[in-house]
Amino acid sequence: MPSGGTCLDILCRIDEFWANLTCDLKSNSQPSDTLKASRMAVSFHRLSQGNSTNYPTSDHQVVCDAEDSLMCSIHLNSSRTFAVLVTVNISNVMASTVLLRIPARPVKPSPPVILSHIQTVEAKLILSWKEPSDFSGNLLRYEVRYSSQNTPRYWQVVSALEKLNVSLDLEPLLKYTIQVRCTTQSQPPLWSDWSKPYYIYLH
């Protein structure tokens, strides 16, 4: 309302497993007592995509309500593109409906393979690996994690971006367990499983 209505932020996101669309609704800059008497509701109405301009309605609808703030989720169980209408209702006042186009679930890549390493003359250790066998040509980025026998439950993680190798700073006289995983450039990223463990012992 122009004379000082309630201002809320709604943030919708897809989890990394592409299993749920979750929207958080909360007050942005208003004092907390502004919403004490307000009842908020978020409804998801899933639509089936016929073409870029036609979204026939379906019977799949999810409604969540709460006071002050809420989190509401809808399960994603489709490998095809579809749309969701998101409607916010505050004390029986309905905001403009937002249309979210949900892209098709990306294919989870297989983990990298054939890990190996070399030591340079400068005593740098370079870990290398190969792209997964089902790599389809999209850019991949990688993460490397490693732990030592002294800290078996503590993983250090290094980002390798699009490279197929990374330099690691390992201590001598320790046995290390190393694994690599990858993801495509999709948003949010869908990571592969970690590769088979690779072991290094530096003399």
Automatic annotation (TrEMBL):
Keywords of the record: Glycoprotein, Membrane, Receptor, Signal, Transmembrane, Transmembrane helix
Cellular localisation: Membrane
Gene3D superfamilies linked to this entry: Immunoglobulins (2.60.40.10)
Domain Fibronectin type-III: 108-203
Key word Transmembrane helix present: yes
Coiled-coil regions listed: none
Superkingdom of this protein's organism: Eukaryota
Record protein name field: Fibronectin type-III domain-containing protein
